[in-house]
Amino acid sequence: MTDTLTSREDTHELLRFATAGSVDDGKSTLIGRLLFDSKALFDDQWDAVEAVSAGRGDEYTDLALLTDGLRSEREQGITIDVAYRYFSTPERKFIIADTPGHIQYTRNMVTGASTADLALILVDARKGLVEQSRRHAFLCSLLRVPHMVLCVNKMDLVDYDEAVFKKIENEFKAFATKLEVPDLTVIPISALKGDNVVNRSENMPWFQGPSLLHHLEKVHIASDRNLVDVRFPVQHVIRPHSNDNHDFRGYAGQVASGVMKPGDEVMVLPSGFTSRIASIETADGPLEEAFPPLSVTVRLEDELDVSRGDMLCRPGNQARVSQDIEAMVCWMDESRPLKLRGKYAIKHTTADVRAIVKDVQYQLDVNTLHRDEAATELKLNEIGRVTLRTTKPLLCDDYRRNRATGGFIIIDESDNRTVGAGIIV
Amino acid sequence: MSDYRISHIAALEAEAIFIFREVAATCQRPVLLFSGGKDSIVMLHLAQKAFAPAPIPFPVMHVDTGQNFAEVIEYRDRRVAETGVQLLVASVQDAIDRGMVTEPPDGTRNRIQTPVLLEAAEKYQFDALFGGARRDEEKARAKERVFSFRDDFGQWDPKNQRPELWNLYNGRVHPGEQIRVFPLSNWTELDVWRYIGAEDIPLPDVYFASEREVVDRGGMLYAVNEFIRPREGEEVFSEKIRYRTVGDATLTAGVRSDATTIDEIIDEVAATRITERGATRGDDKTSEAAMEDRKREGYF
Ligand SMILES: Nc1nc2c(ncn2[C@@H]2O[C@H](COP(=O)(O)OP(=O)(O)O)[C@@H](O)[C@H]2O)c(=O)[nH]1
């Protein structure tokens, strides 16, 4: 118990990462190993897995069983939905969005990548890059995941051969230059044997880079946030109506981007009225500054009519106010495709609006990046560029500049299902 | 905070507060499930912080099995009085008396909580129910959404969940349907304890170690009380235990412990090697898929 003090201090930073790989590339084994080696696994979980593995007659305990979730998946031996896993090291707390790699599950990859700081893509060293590896990389770049790691797995099966690794690395880097991948790291590993997962491998002295875990612990994420453009979508108006707080009127929300301070001049969108920040309140007392991802309550010096769905910005740096939205849309519904002239509900920041599809400009083949301009609809897992006209203006930015104000979801009003995700371009 | 970094606990708190506010702003009739257990205590604390200085804008509800630790009920009532929140009690005993549910022969009431919960939700027309479940608790939970849709029968269909992207939660429902909302989704047991420590949140005494008369059932230590009587041939002995969870008093086992303060608990939890459910919940041991089945039926 030498680290009793560190275990109590909550100074860890949070890193969210999404994993992607084709079936059998070793994703479950890798996650199992990260959990196991970081001691995030408990004895009873381990015992259960050992028992199943022994019962099946496996030669070694199958780490992949640790992450096998639902019964239907166990029966089919596949993963059908995004699952979230947690582990921490003395450096960081990690949230893994474990997304299945089958072709029909682009939806899940997009979901997992939407909140990820980092994407981890796996390939099998024996097979090299496959169509799916390219698709995963494309989706992560589309969702603007700031950091990407390609793990070349099963190096033990290619004699830890540097040439095999180099070939895959070069091929992937060549492909990645066509995408916008801000930060790419390529690591040769064996998830099964543990090479370069937690510790640097002695089997690959030719590799000078960090182990995967070391990279996950050290990769610099603080500056990934947009601290420049003040965007504060108003979530809820707090008015206590009590004698003690009779005049209190505060705008509750989570800072989407930028840094806000008391005294700052702000503009309310869409009305365009301006005021100054009187104070930034929390239950623990007022703050001198607020920045993402803090949830705060902002009070203004002037009494303005501000409600949910409005946004606070700086007068000299405003979000776009527009009813004509150009977006890349990923369709997520199996029952009905997105249709030209279709009407949908949109949820964007804290605003709910309705929209009509004015144009489907093209459908994008995520493997070849070929554009099919004849398309008039988008089916499940298809991605395309569409033009929307909304009933009320969205207060938005390009997704590439601001993930929090550039993304939206599409809802089918007949059954309330989330049927698509959009990225404003 | 000069480099604009925050700890992961602060990030989790900000996320939970955002979720509470989102529900309050978009759902018609939310309710917070409150049992007096530590996760629901943290939930109530977060709800208070989310709306301060205004009061919590929704009631809390206890689905009461009638088999409670007395300290926990006292704690529940004290917290309710302090916060001024409205408490609704959905009584399992009452449902048994009315013949709405039948008590299982083994006397455990966890499973029959579900219809009682669903009945109360219908009666009060709740469209959003906050629960304190975490994804680290169990395999089926790992795939649960933060906003988890339930149909008219309160059922969960894991194959038909709404995709959840960014922080854009879809809480739309038709009348009769509900959203279960889990603001602690991304917390681990250790995060909950650290938060309790950091925020100095008081807890019922059962969470701290004390000498109790216990029986050993299949390696689990159950304190002898009005619900747990020694069976034929069972040895009663004295042991210092505390509870990691406090559910139904007939089902919840304690763990050997010397921890009498939050800091000592955190140290023990950080070093522990057995999951919370594995260590203390008799009901989940039954089968690998027990939780998944119960969730499909409408359990939290
Ligand atoms: N030799 C070797 N086998 C591996 C490695 N990683 C995974 N495997 C095996 O590859 C198979 C598929 O792995 P799994 O983790 O289930 O793949 P997933 O479908 O991507 O989750 C299993 O039999 C693993 O034991 C590795 O690094 N080396």
Summarize the structure.
Chain A is of the alpha+beta class and 425 residues long. Helix content of chain A is 20%, strand content 32%. In chain B, the strands form 2 sheets. A 6-stranded mixed β-sheet of chain B has the order 3-2-1-4-6-5.
Give a description of the structure.
The complex is a heterodimer of chains A (425) and B (300). By secondary structure, chain A is an alpha+beta fold. Chain A is 20% helix and 32% strand. Chain A is built from 9 helices and 22 strands. In chain A, strands 7-13-10-11-12-9-8 form a 7-stranded antiparallel sheet, with no helix packed on it. Chain A has a 6-stranded mixed sheet with strand order 2-3-1-4-5-6, sandwiched between helices. Chain A has a 6-stranded antiparallel β-barrel with strand order 14-20-17-16-21-22. The N and C termini of chain A lie far apart (52 Å). Chain B has 300 residues and is an alpha/beta fold. Chain B has 2 domains: 9-190 and 289-297, Rossmann fold (3-Layer(aba) Sandwich), CATH 3.40.50; 203-284, no CATH class. In chain B, 33% of the residues lie in helices and 15% in strands. Chain B has helices spanning 8-26, 38-51, 70-83, 92-97, 113-124, 189-199, 262-271, 276-280, 290-297; strands spanning 30-33, 60-64, 87-91, 128-130, 147-150, 178-181, 210-217, 220-223, 237-242, 255-256. In chain B, helix 1 crosses helix 2 and helix 6 (189-199) runs antiparallel to helix 7. The radius of gyration of chain B is 19 Å and the shape is globular. At the A-B interface, helix 1, helix 3, strand 2, strand 3 and helix 5 of A face helix 1, helix 2, helix 6 and helix 7 of B. The structure holds guanosine-5'-diphosphate. Guanosine-5'-diphosphate binds next to helix 2 of chain A. Guanosine-5'-diphosphate binds at residues 21, 23-29, 64, 153-154, 156-157, 190-192 of chain A.
